[in-house]
Specification:
Largest sheet: 3 strands, antiparallel
CATH superfamily: Winged helix-like DNA-binding domain superfamily/Winged helix DNA-binding domain
Low-confidence stretches: none
Number of domains: 1
Mean pLDDT: 85
Helix content: 25-40%
Order of helices and strands: HHHHEEEEE
Structural class: alpha+beta
Shape: globular
Number of strands: 5
CATH class: Mainly Alpha
Strand order of the largest sheet: 3-4-5
Length: 128
């Protein structure tokens, strides 16, 4: 049996990049409901829906709360599986940022931002 020529790769082709890691599993329904019940956490998700990962100090300033309080709110979102932690390039473990996993985020045709977690989706108005 001869090998199929279409399945061979030439030496000049580069292999495709590895697939992105899967999103983290969501927390319990109770953890998610608790996380979404707090207005600051809801507003945090709205700000993170664009894929950014601002510093906790910046988020705290935007949402008019203390940085230590903002850190606690983000940990609630992390516990519920709604955000993940990321490290800035070249940063050490003290510089932890929070971000919504790219698999969950999308922008709708009308400009609204959506975070689709599977069992439920959050939709936010288009940014001004």
């Amino acid at each position: 049996m001869q090998p199929d020529e279409s399945s061979e790769t030439s030496p000049t082709q580069t292999p495709p990049p590895p697939p992105p890691p899967p999103p983290p599993p969501l927390g319990s329904t109770k953890a998610i409901a608790t996380a979404l019940a707090e207005p600051i956490r809801w507003d945090s998700l709205r700000l993170l829906a664009d894929g950014s990962y601002p510093a906790i100090l910046d988020l705290a300033q935007l949402l008019n709360c203390a940085p230590d309080q903002m850190g606690r709110h983000l940990r609630w979102l992390l516990k519920a599986g709604l955000v993940r932690t990321v490290l800035a390039p070249g940063a050490d473990r003290r510089c932890i940022y929070y971000q919504i996993h790219p698999a969950y985020r999308r922008t709708l045709p009308d400009g609204r931002r959506e975070i689709d977690y599977g069992p439920f989706a959050l939709r936010f108005p288009a940014p001004d």
